[in-house]
Amino acid sequence: MALMVSVSGIRGIVGEDLTPGTVVNYVSSFIETLGKKSGTILLGRDTRRTSPMIQKIVEATANALGFNTLDVGVAPTPMVLFLTKKKKCAGGIAITASHNPAEWNALKLCTDKGFFLSGMQVEELKENAEGPLEGRAWTDFKGIGTVKYDPAAKGEYLESVLRMIDTEAIRKKKLVVAFDPVGGAGCSVDRDFLEALGCTVHGVHDKPRDVFPRSPEPVPENLSDLSALVKKCGACIGFAQDPDADRLSVVSERGVPAGEEYTLVLSGEAWLRRKKTDIACNLSTSMMVDDLASRYGVGVKRTKIGEINVTETLISHNLVFGGEGNGGVIVPEINPCRDSLVGMGLILELLALSGKTVSELIGSWPRYNMLKDRVRIPEISKSELFDRILIKGNKLFPNFSSDLLDGIKYYNKSEWVHIRFSNTEPIIRIMAESPSPSRTEDLLSTARLLVGQESGDG
Q: What interhelical angle do 119-129 and 20-33 show, nearest 10?
């Protein structure tokens, strides 16, 4: 394994790649790249066992550089970004490895504007981290930063999301809602948020857990407990999150997991009913987004993987809705990052205003079959691998266009396959989509051959 340093944060297995020394190095590098001599760094974390320990190291490092810290406790990543800007902090750090397994952890870093670091800023951070710790601007005893704890700050975040949603329409419906925050950061805000919308709320895995009670990703195969709860309590919908509560997926009133790709489409329909806007999303997002855009007469702008790339496209093109197919909803005027509470609120608004069930809403969209796989990186350089893929791929996909923005994507009007290096794990990700399950499997199998794997690995 090796430390993963990308726009998705500084990630590694605790005690192997992510050590106390690594944390001190990257936190001090990050603070120095902010270009400020003093200020406050906002801190929040998920519930995993190693997060309190890492937060103490982060806090001490910031204080030793003369920066104050504002600790908001267990908090969703989108809340950390929102409060960093709201409270005029110099920067923010969320201690969370998001969907990675429990042995992993990470530092997710944001600027004073509440934006994750861009690719260029990450490169600057990596270069700065190569310098000696002795060269950092450590303060003397007179300049040590202060520590403040503010768990009540979550109220400001919740109010901001509620203001942007038709709360009156939702409250009138008196909806019954089930949720599963996987024992993670969502435990700190979900119930308060849903009850503020007048919902009757039932939870599973809704108490903080330092070891997650299910596999962290909110994908259908991990949501059997939520599905059972939806049917047991007669809920109109079930919501599932990952441990840092930036991703969201939906379970229908029948207890059937919809898959994360529907989160963006359902949220997008709610938003586009209000405002027409082109949609920004990444290259691996389902073709359902193109169908959504067609329904409302708008366009789609595709970006590299990594939510900051979607955010930057939204801001630079003055767009008001976007996200990622992994359950990430981004509405910049609420929060310029993936925010599962924004997704919850918009989908509940859609249910309330449309009068339709989740099953009916999902059934109104064309059906596609998407498959995802992950394979080990072959023992050759990235450039050699992708040169090989391009040479072979152009022969194996003769009637496809290719996109080299992020890895290699072969596509036509009805199907696509995408091969790229992960930002969060030392693997290659392969995704394919088409209207037919068998055709999607064929696309995935061909892609495996292109990277030198005859079957999925991992």
A: 120
